[in-house]
């Protein structure tokens, strides 16, 4: 999820960022014959793009873009599956590698090999045999820390999963529910990748004993519980550690007024899990032709260059530009934890069930 979700849109909106919730004429809908001039994108709440970039697509293609936001990534995927026989739109954006198998197993997408997909960095490609999804962006789910807190307490910030269970970090971490939140699930999968199928439960027992706090989603964790968020709220949270993204520190700089010389938050680089987001042409899409054109557009250099400072994610197309703020304040993790989609598919639901029983009860 982009700060899917995901991906820093909630904070950015609170600090003055303008997101595109919908474009197009009021009341325009996708027609059943595939010849509608409206393309409907279904996404999680963190979708955002520059109006000028969307307008350029509309002018070039002749289609009008309508955006339907359907909540957190997990919620949006589940709703799309339930409505797949009569979908709400033509293209779905925001299913990530933690939930991809659920979407594919339920037949959410129809095959389409987007034009330009050969320029996508090979490590991000998935489902290449069926071409049912197209990689759009990537990001790292990592623990962020409040620099001011650790400086004031003369405490070195944690840098690894192992550090988080040490006594000096007791009652400092807030994370999201793995059953309801994309970053929460990514953090769980990161621990499973680190400690293995049999080792991650013991790690979470230690984390629970060390006072980890669990909330429903990213917005609550980052904007309400985390002490380092500049969300504009009157009362700061009291947790100086939060599960967020490696791209969160750049957002804290970019949307601060005045801009600080250094980011007020940092990333524990040894706690990262690589997330990849995909888009696909929905099965039974009313406007499949328009949906294909929009998928092509999502991997053009123009959209990929525009995307980082709107959704705070990294482009996946070779040659796309990464903003200097990203490289300075929020570089991608050099050695993030990863997990094969097949491993996630085989274990995700049982791990979440076990995690819920272990951590929430």
Describe this entry's structure for a reader.
With 361 residues, the chain is an alpha/beta fold. It has 14 helices and 10 strands. Strands 1, 2, 3, 4, 5, 6, 7, 8, 9 and 10 form a 10-stranded mixed β-sheet that branches. The model is unreliable at 1-34 (pLDDT under 50).
Distance between the termini: 26 Å
The helix count comes to: 14
Radius of gyration: 20 Å
**Largest beta-sheet details:** 10 strands, mixed
The global form is globular
Would you identify the regions where 5 or more consecutive residues have pLDDT less than 50? 1-34
The total of beta strands comes to 10
Write a brief caption for the model:
37% of the residues lie in helices and 18% in strands. With 361 residues, it is an alpha/beta fold.
Descriptive labels:
disordered N terminus; 361 residues; ten-stranded mixed sheet; alpha/beta
């Amino acid at each position: 999820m982009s700060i899917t979700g995901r991906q820093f849109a909630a904070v950015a909106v609170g600090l003055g960022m303008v997101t595109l919730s919908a474009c197009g004429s009021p009341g325009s809908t996708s027609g059943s014959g595939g010849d509608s001039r409206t393309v409907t994108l279904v996404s999680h709440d963190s979708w955002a793009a520059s109006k000028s970039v969307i307008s350029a697509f509309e002018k070039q293609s002749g289609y009008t873009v309508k955006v339907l936001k359907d909540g957190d990534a997990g919620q949006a995927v589940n709703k799309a599956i339930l409505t797949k026989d009569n979908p709400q739109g033509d293209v779905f954006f925001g299913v990530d590698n933690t939930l991809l198998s659920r979407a594919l197993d339920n037949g959410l997408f129809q095959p389409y090999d987007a034009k330009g997909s050969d320029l996508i960095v090979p490590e991000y490609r998935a489902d290449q045999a069926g071409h049912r999804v197209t990689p759009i962006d990537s990001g790292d789910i990592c623990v962020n820390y409040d620099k001011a807190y650790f400086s004031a307490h003369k405490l070195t910030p944690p840098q690894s999963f192992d550090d988080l269970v040490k006594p000096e970090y007791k009652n400092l971490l807030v994370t999201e529910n793995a059953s309801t939140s994309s970053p929460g699930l990514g953090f769980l999968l990161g621990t499973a990748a680190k400690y293995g199928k049999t080792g991650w439960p013991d790690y979470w027992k230690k984390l629970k004993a060390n006072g980890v706090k669990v909330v429903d989603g990213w917005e609550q964790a980052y904007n309400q519980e985390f002490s380092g968020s500049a969300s504009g709220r009157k009362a700061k949270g009291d947790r100086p550690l939060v599960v967020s993204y490696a791209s969160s520190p750049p957002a804290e700089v970019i949307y601060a007024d005045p801009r600080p010389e250094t980011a007020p938050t940092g990333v524990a680089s040894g706690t990262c899990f690589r997330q990849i987001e995909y888009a696909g042409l929905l099965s039974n899409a009313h406007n499949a032709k328009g949906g294909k054109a929009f998928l092509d557009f999502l991997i053009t250099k123009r959209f990929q260059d525009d995307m980082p400072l709107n959704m705070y994610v990294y482009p996946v197309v070779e040659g796309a530009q990464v903003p200097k703020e990203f490289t300075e304040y929020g570089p991608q993790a050099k050695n993030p934890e990863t997990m094969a989609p097949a491993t996630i598919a085989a274990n995700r639901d049982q791990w979440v069930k076990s995690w819920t029983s272990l951590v929430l009860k």
